[in-house]
Amino acid sequence: MHLKIRSPESNQIIKVTIFLFLGLLLLAVLSLVNKQVVLKTVYNPEYFRLPDHVETVITGASDMQFGLNPELIKNSCNIARPAEDYFYVYYKIKFLLNSNNRIKNIITGYNLGGLSKNREDDLYDHQSAQFHKCYFMLLDKYGVDKIYRRNKDFYFFYAKYCFGVPLELRQELSLWSDILFKKASIYQYPFCGRFMNRKGQVARPFRGVYFRNAFLGKDNQLVPKSKIMIEYIEKIAQLCKEKGVNLILISTPVHHSLTERFPSYYLQLGYQTMQKLKEINPQIKYYDFSTYTLSDDCFLDEAHLNSKGNNLFSKEINKLL
Amino acid sequence: MSFNSPNFILFFPAVVFIYFAMPHRYRWVALLCASYYFYMTWHIRYIGLLFSSTAVTYGTALLLARHSEKKRRKLYLSAGVGFTLGILFIFKYFNFFNHMGRTVFRFLNVSYSIPDISLPLPVGISFYTFFLVGYLIDIYRNTAKAEKHFGVFAAAVAFFPLLLAGPIERAKSFLPQFFEEHQFDFRRVQNGVILMLWGFFKKLVIADRLAIAVNQVYQHPEQYHGLPLIVASIFIVFQVYCDFSGYCDIALGAAQVLGFRLTNNFNRPFASRSVSEFWRRWHISLSTWMRDYVYYPLALNKHLNGKWGIITATLITFGLIGLWHGAEWKYLFMGCIYGAAIAYEILTKKVRLKIGEKIPARLYDAFCLIATFCLINFSFIFFKAANIQQGFYIVTNMFSDFELRWIDIGLSSTDIAIALAALVLLEAIQLIQSRVDIEHYIATKPRYMRWTVYYTLVFAIIIFGIFSDTKFIYFNF
């Protein structure tokens, strides 16, 4: 009888293969469970319920997050998030309106910087990809293709949301369990921010950081408009019209050192875009407070209000609603 | 390409496969190509810089080895060290000294028109420069032999696991490893991979989680007072430790897979009972480099005598350690804090010993442990702050407007609990490791237990990790 004795090397190869196979099998099972159970529940609009009293939702970027105090605006909540551009605002509102029929008003920021090509570039930027990953699950195929085609930094999130790979599962897991036990709050959703009520001010004089970020390219030249951002703010207008919700666009007060420098090209672009939006949705209300006179101690920095500033401003907005 | 990018998951196994598939005598080619490719994924245009530093150092070392005349050797050493340090100076320190020059000239009312250099800092420049400088000094001192094989030397300088953030190896222990024939030893490879996973755990689960809170507070410290500033400042120490030691574990693990042994850069630094002990346990490769090439020559200098000579040498060494991190006043200040603390330790050694004798040993040890941690924490505030003014702002506002009300710092209570639990686990494992060889301990366990440990580690990283592809902090140096 001929006995075949395996060499130690082939034994090791077999062991490694079994180890990897079992690992992959475990990963596949976890991915399946994650996709079918956890993600399906967490991103089911049915469970994304605003508190009963809320009729007005504040979305947008940090200007809104720092600017509007929901306690001073009746029946409102502020879920704005830093650097939330129109591309993501659209998907967030769409998700929100799917299951919250009580909403009457959507307030979002209308700032000139939001229309610039720099914001569009952020969609494809490596660091922004990390910041914007929380919206990935809200995107439709058109939205996913739009950014994923040009930004492969989304591969982690593509793997996570499209295939259920349990990357950073911890976050969804606690939300999922809270949903099951009916303890979940909308603020637990990673794409929902919270109102920021900050005291104090940053050092003066302002160094023009916001202006550069908003309007200037790497060569210090004015950047052109963003077609995508304009496309998506128009989509927001259209969506609100279809859902019968009032869209209120607000330009928050900014420090005069910034308004003085607004490029005329962008002032004109802001005006033209607003005309177009009103054509799409004649119900849109627009309040321009960018030149609203507030003392220096109302500003956290050149583009954000502090607690004193947002107190005054929120009361003004409340009167208008 | 960073260690925590998905590209590395493809790159590293490919390199390992090619390395072991090649005959021993040509393996340096595989390592050199892989390392240069690895570096080029960061800075394609700076590859010439790496190559020229390597070539000049190689040539200088051969000249040093060939000549015995002291004057000539000194000249070669100065030229070689001057060239490599000159490159480092241009990229890292020129603007700093240019600003100082401008300020002085402005004060003297004299026009000054030398412009700043606006070039990004080549990744890892401080690490490979120190390796090269150490190599030249060793040859000058006749404590190492000049490497004749240029390819091997270039592969050692650019060795990808340690190219970006160290550890700063010594040529005399590192270069000979390139001539050893490394077999594909399954146990060694397995241990290397586990060490890499442990490094990923530290980086992705702890460091990047704490970084969320630290970055939120330190980006706008003006918006915070009291508790959030204290919490974020405590987190910094652990964030930096887990980030850097995580990187080092990955580097050591990757090198181990290929058959190389690198210097362990950390040895439970938070168990230190004095600042001098801390520096024997933290970034060991840098502190020993500074000790051998800066501190000893200064302390043994005939012009610096006695206790005060040692203190002067200590202050200069730690000032340079501070500046090694970057050309900023905050780093210099950080280095001076360490220097002053060690000077204090030297001056009060006898008094402290007497006090120590009167107090129960455990109590005294606990006091020293806490005092050291607080001082390290204080210095790390300046490490993380945008500048020295911001550092002082944070220090002075930590206890002002103090209220025990929690303010959102970007981390949920669950995330904080995960980070703290992981830190406890980390310290426990390190404590056990100081007494038992964990690798050996795990290896003696039945397979199902071993595999459970490995799977748990992998899935803990996947589920609890923060996949934000953030750079390792020490890549900035």
Would you kindly provide a written description of the structure presented here, covering whatever features stand out?
Chain A has 321 residues and is an alpha/beta fold. Helix content of chain A is 49%, strand content 8%. In chain A, helix 1 packs across helix 8, helix 3 packs parallel to helix 10 and helix 10 runs parallel beside helix 12. The model of chain A has no long low-confidence stretch (mean pLDDT 86). By secondary structure, chain B is mostly helical. Chain B folds into two domains: 177 residues, no CATH class; 277 residues, no CATH class. Chain B is 71% helix and 0% strand. Chain B contains 20 helices and no strands. In chain B, helix 9 packs antiparallel against helix 18 and helix 10 packs across helix 16. Chain B is globular.
Produce the secondary structure layout:
The complex is a heterodimer of chains A (321) and B (477).
Chain A: H1 8-42, E1 56-58, H2 62-67, E2 76-78, H3 86-97, E3 105-109, H4 117-124, H5 126-132, H6 141-148, H7 155-163, H8 169-180, H9 209-215, H10 227-243, E4 246-251, H11 256-259, H12 264-280, E5 285-288, E6 299-301, E7 304-305, H13 307-320
Parallel strand pairs in A: 1-2, 1-3, 3-4, 4-5
Antiparallel strand pairs in A: 6-7
Helix pairs in contact in A: 1-7, 1-8, 3-10, 10-12
Chain B: H1 6-21, H2 27-40, H3 47-66, H4 70-107, H5 125-140, H6 150-157, H7 160-163, H8 171-174, H9 186-219, H10 227-258, H11 275-281, H12 284-299, H13 306-325, H14 329-347, H15 349-358, H16 361-384, H17 388-397, H18 413-435, H19 438-443, H20 447-464
Helix pairs in contact in B: 1-2, 2-6, 3-4, 3-5, 3-6, 4-5, 9-10, 9-18, 9-20, 10-16, 12-13, 13-14, 14-16, 16-17
